[in-house]
């Protein structure tokens, strides 16, 4: 049964983006549920980072357009 769980974890990790894969593998989860929870948290952090970058770029664009209009 332990090998089944390890196989499930490996298959799950194999379907993740590479940078998330490495972080989950490094944490060495013993249960699939732990691997899923960790991967979800990492993906949430990654997406929040994209949101912040997008907002910063939007502000820069608005300032640039405003400066050109004056």
Summarize the structure.
It is built from 3 helices and no strands.
Structure, described:
- The protein is an all-alpha fold.
- It contains three helices and no strands.
- The chain has helices at 2-14, 18-27, 32-69.
- Helix 1 runs parallel beside helix 3 and helix 2 packs across helix 3.
- It comes from Tanacetum cinerariifolium (Dalmatian daisy).
- This is Reverse transcriptase domain-containing protein.
Name the quaternary structure.
single chain
**How many DSSP H or I helices?**
3
Question: Overall mean pLDDT score?
Answer: 87
The number of E-state strands comes to 0
- The helix fraction, in percent, is over 70%
Radius of gyration: 19 Å
Strand content: under 5%
Cα(first) to Cα(last) distance is 70 Å
Alpha-beta classification: mainly alpha
Number of self-contained structural domains: 1
What is the H/E order? HHH
Biggest beta sheet attributes? none
- CA-based shape: rod-shaped
Poorly predicted runs: none
List the helices and strands and how they pair.
Layout: H1 2-14, H2 18-27, H3 32-69
Organism: Tanacetum cinerariifolium
Protein name: Reverse transcriptase domain-containing protein
């Amino acid at each position: 049964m332990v090998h089944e769980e390890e196989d499930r974890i490996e298959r799950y990790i194999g379907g993740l983006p590479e940078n998330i894969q490495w972080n989950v593998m490094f944490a060495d989860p013993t249960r699939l549920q732990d691997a899923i929870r960790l991967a979800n948290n990492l993906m949430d952090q990654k997406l929040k980072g994209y949101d912040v970058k997008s907002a910063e770029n939007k502000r820069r664009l608005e300032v640039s357009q405003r400066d050109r209009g004056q």
